[in-house]
C-alpha cells in the first residue's frame, strides 16, 4: 500500500487540532480570577517628595494604628513609610529587617518590638494562651528578646539613619494572652540594650500611653482612633526633633 504523505500530514494535523480543542476549557469552564485583595491604606507608600527626608516606622498593630496620623502630622516635613505588614516579634524582625530596609536612604528609623514577644503561646502554636497555664510561655523570652533587639539595633544603626527606639505600650488588665506589667519589664531590658549599643534615642511612649489610658480599649492592648492619634502626636514630635538635629 502506498502512503500519500500529504494526506497523512493533513490527517495528523487535524487529529492534533481536535485533541487541543477538546483539551481546551470552554468559556464556562474558565475559573474567574479572585478579585485583588485590597491593601490597607497604612501599608501604601507615601506620595514621595524627593526633596524631603525619608522616615521608616517599624512596629506591630499599635504602629499600624498610628501610621496614617503620623504621616499626616509630618506632611511636608518627611516621606513616612512602614513595612506593608505587622512586624510582629523580634524573631520576625531578624528575618525580615533587610527586606524592610531595602535600598532606600533612611534619615530616621523609629522602631518597636515587644507586645508580640511578651504574649503567651500554648502547645502547637496556640496564640494568646492563658499565661497561668503550665504549658504556655512568652513567644520570646525576655533574655532572647534582649539579644534579638541588640542585633536589630546594630543593623539599623548601620544604615546611617538616626535610630529611635519606641517604648512598648502597656498591657491593660484583662487583656487576653498577656500579663499587665510585662511591657514595663521588657522596656527596662530594651533601655539597657539601647544604652549598650549606643547612639539610639528613646521615645518614651509608655509614659504617654499611661497618661492617656482612657484612650486604650478595655481589656485590649489596642487603642481607639483618638488614642492612636495621640500616640501619633508623640511619634511625630520625636521624629521631628530627630530631623531637626540632623539638619544642623
TrEMBL record:
Molecular function as annotated in GO: hydrolase activity, acting on ester bonds
InterPro entries: SGNH_hydro (IPR013830), SGNH_hydro_sf (IPR036514)
Signal sequence bounds: 1-28
SUPFAM superfamilies per record: SGNH hydrolase (SSF52266)
One Pfam family this sequence matches: Lipase_GDSL_2
Residues covered by the SGNH hydrolase-type esterase domain: 58-229
Keyword Disulfide bond in record: no
Domain of life assignment: Bacteria
UniProt KW keywords: Hydrolase, Signal
Keyword check for Secreted: no
Protein name as it appears in the record: GDSL-like Lipase/Acylhydrolase
